[in-house]
Each structure stands twice: as C-alpha cells, then as structure tokens.
Amino acid sequence: MKPKTISPPFSPEQIAAAKAAAPSTSRRAAAIDWSKGVVTRGGGVAATIGAIKRTRGPNKQPTKAQVAIRLDPDVLSAFRAGGPGWQTRLNAVLKDWLAAQPKKRAPRRKAAA
C-alpha cells in the first residue's frame, strides 16, 4: 500500500502560529484561509505531486500473452458488435474449442545415433 502523502488539516493552534509568523505587509497575506491548509512531506510541490500521482506498475504475473492475429472481417465485426469485452468473449470461444479437441501427444524425437 502506498504511504499517505498528505496529513490531516492544520489544527487551530497551527493556524494561529502560521498567521503570527506570516508577514502581514500585504493584504493578500492577511486574506489567506489557513483552515483548509494541509501539511505535506518536504521536497516542494513537484515532489508532492510526484508522490501523489498514481501509475500502473509492471504486471508481476502476466496471465496472457499479447499476439497479433488476423481474423476475417465478418468474425471480427460479429464479436465487436457485442460491445465491450469482445476480446474476452473471443478468448472464451477459443478456450471452448480447444477443450473440445482431442488431446494430441507431442511428437517423439528420435534418439541421436
């Protein structure tokens, strides 16, 4: 599980301390609403955004192999017409066909003479 990168909102004591420490030379600094502020880990904005950004990692145990296959247009359009999941349905049909086939033995190799 990814570590939490954002802490809970500031406490009232932290807000009061931040207001006291903030320079009050401009109206903009005095208008900051600290009640919605959050504490993030160091490293600046880029590091925080990088830590929050979720990316998909490599598939640890691939269960399927990606291949290129040529299908007749009518077969392809029939499966695609069924909507999303057509590749999964095509895979299921191929599995059913494979299960219906008689088991074949691998050819035996001749011993080297």
- Overall 3D geometry? elongated
Helical content band: 40-55%
Strand content: 5-15%
Strand order of the largest sheet: 1-2
What is the count of β-strands?
A: 2
The number of distinct helices, counting runs of at least 4 residues, comes to 5
Mean pLDDT value: 76
Q: Strand pairing plus helix content: what structural class?
A: mainly alpha
Please trace the helix and strand order, writing H or E for each element.
EHHEHHH
Gyration radius over CA: 31 Å
The major beta sheet can be summarized as: 2 strands, antiparallel
Instruction: Kindly report how far apart the N and C termini lie.
Output: 58 Å
- Which residues form runs of ≥5 with pLDDT under 50? none
Question: What would you note in describing this structure?
Answer:
The protein is mainly α and about 110 residues long. About 40% of the residues lie in helices and about 5% in strands. It has 5 helices and 2 strands. The protein has a two-stranded antiparallel ribbon with strand order 1-2. The chain is elongated and about 90 Å long. It starts with 5 loop residues before the first strand and ends in a 13-residue tail after the last helix. The mean pLDDT is about 75.
